[in-house]
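Practice record 12: protein with adenosine monophosphate.
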Amino acid sequence: MGGSGRDSPRFNCANDGLRENLRRLVPNTLPPRMPVIFSGIQPTGTKHLGNYIGAIRQYVEGQDRGDPAIFCIVDLHAITNPYDPAELRRSVYDLTALLVASGLDPARCVLFRQSDVKEHTELCWLLASVTATGELNRMHQFRDKSVAQRELVSSGLLFYPVLQAADVLAYRAHEVPVGEDQREHLELMRDVARRFNSRFGEELLVVPDHRIPVVGARIMDLQNPDRKMSTTGGSEEGTVYVLDEPKVIEKKIKRAVTDADDPPRIAKDPAKPGVSNLIDIMAVARGVSPEQVVADLAQARGYGDLKAATAEAVIAMLAPVKVRYEELRADEAALEQILASGAEKARSIAAQTLADVRRVMALGPPPS
Ligand code: AMP
Ligand code: TRP
């Protein structure tokens, strides 16, 4: 994938213009050369190509740019929907193995399980004092999930974004790599950080930037290219899982819905969501721009060629991940060890933020 600079045009940062102005006007406020990077990912469902391209690849890219780069398996977020406890524990190991197989190196990043670091839940409660219920009620994810939920709509589901804000703010992270669907949650945590700082009179919490990839922030379902690829809302045949067998990947991509243009036209075009999605997927899998993909396929005879080339590129990207995953998943004790040592590092950072937060909020004994 190759390293990219902090200002790489492959990503959109919320504050790019502002940061540039600051950089010119007040050199001392230069952002750190090595940002603190933080992201969280749920241990639910089987991770698909959307997660891999929109999030996991960004994590791997970030681990040598971040100081530190911190990645959290958010089991406390996963319990906001009805779930099977035994399965949750397995899913945490599944995801740990998948992230390491995808290239996260526990020696170069902090990889841990959210529930091992109690500072997250404590900060969540403290931030609740500066979060409006109206804001939480308006979140699209809350609305969608509470409508879809047939059983109990838990208050955890409403509180989900506050815990997510705590995850990031506890580490004073500068950058949060996520897919497009997390934009609203990121805006909320930026508001919460600003409100906390102004309420308690110190620039104590860092207002984080989101980092959304320019290509691949929203990978679409192969069968319904008007909807994002998703484990819960998508179609089985339209969802490529990271651990699918190469033959299955090939079949799903070759059956992707394109369009009936005659003659077929391979181009990025909002009117051609299926074709555009395949171009984006292939661009990411090959590590080139979508324009390059289109140029390479100038001689293609039809969508069949586009699909065959996309399938080949995706298999080349994912097959080695599957091989490494099988090896790593077999040793749960080793996975537990990775999580435990990650939690220790995470705790030592989060505890400092919590001490500052408690101090300005006048909680506990006065500082000596
Ligand atoms: P989740 O599995 O819901 O915890 O999502 C993990 C990450 O994958 C988040 O950063 C999402 O924004 C990202 N993501 C989920 N679905 C897609 C998609 N279809 N395209 C791109 N990114 C996605
Ligand atoms: N809500 C995120 C998702 O569904 C997961 C998440 C939890 C997260 N905490 C986070 C993402 C902190 C970024 C930063 O994908």
